[in-house]
Amino acid sequence: MLIAGFPAGAFQTNCYVIAPAEGEECVIIDPGQDAVEGVDELLREHRLKPVAVLLTHGHLDHVWSVAPVCGARGVPAWIHPDDRHLLSDPAAGWSSTSSSLFGDLTLSEPDDVRELSDGATLELAGMELVVDHTPGHTRGSVSFRGDAGRGVMFSGDLLFAGSIGRTDLPGGDYPTILRSLAAKCLPLPDDTVVLPGHGPQTTIGRERATNPYLKEAAPHAGPTRGI
């Protein structure tokens, strides 16, 4: 699997492009602020043709460029239904104080929006990606799991190197994110590569050993009903 990416915009949100190999179809994950040029550069460099955009959640820093990226290539965007409203109402995902930072910014849904569900397997660009609903950062947060020789997880803002996503914005909930970590991260093999929404990549094993939030989530492991 080819995985390329770059940190986009002032939020330094990781945007990823994944494909079976160079010169083939690809999927774009989380095109954030001012991501269009970076996406186009990766597509040219690796001779890729996008077939879909996947969104780990609806926060502005992850969806800022989704409409222009989808519109330019005529591809659908996939998002969990609990976060779909944020595509056209980004301020709803932020506190009243922070939303004022965006002024008169308006966003709109791409022409083709499709909804993700927990446990679904997406067959896109010759790849299979498993969707895990991982609420806690937002109600509609998801992560994507695939295989790149060893397992890989695109964790969005669920899990970072040494930390986790914030839970103090609308739709966030700390006990819920702990349950998501317990249900969706702790069962994974230690060599699973974690590609987060911000910051450097890590592995499940490294986070299991050093991340205080995964340690706190461990007592929540077990039945996942209600997540």
Report on the structure:
Keywords: Hydrolase, Metal-binding, Zinc. Its cofactor is Zn(2+). This is MBL fold metallo-hydrolase. With 227 residues, the chain is of the alpha/beta class. The protein contains seven helices and 14 strands. The two termini are 31 Å apart.
Tags for this model:
globular, 227 residues, 14 strands, alpha/beta, six-stranded mixed beta sheet, single chain, disordered C terminus, 28% strand
Briefly note the structural class of the backbone. alpha/beta
What's the mean pLDDT score? 92
Strand order of the largest sheet: 1-2-3-4-5-6
User: What's the story with the biggest beta sheet?
Assistant: 6 strands, mixed
Number of strands: 14
Question: How would the blueprint of this fold be written?
Answer:
Layout: E1 2-8, E2 13-19, E3 25-29, H1 36-46, E4 49-54, H2 60-63, H3 66-73, E5 77-79, H4 96-99, E6 113-115, E7 121-124, E8 127-133, E9 142-147, E10 151-156, E11 159-160, E12 163-164, H5 174-185, E13 193-196, E14 202-203, H6 204-210, H7 212-217
Parallel strand pairs: 3-4, 4-5, 5-6, 10-13
Antiparallel strand pairs: 1-2, 2-3, 7-8, 8-9, 9-10, 11-12, 13-14
Protein name: MBL fold metallo-hydrolase
Pfam families: Lactamase_B (PF00753)
Keywords: Hydrolase, Metal-binding, Zinc
Summarize the structure.
The chain has helices at 36-46, 60-63, 66-73, 96-99, 174-185, 204-210, 212-217; strands at residues 2-8, 13-19, 25-29, 49-54, 77-79, 113-115, 121-124, 127-133, 142-147, 151-156, 159-160, 163-164, 193-196, 202-203. With 227 residues, it is an alpha/beta fold. It holds the Pfam family Lactamase_B.
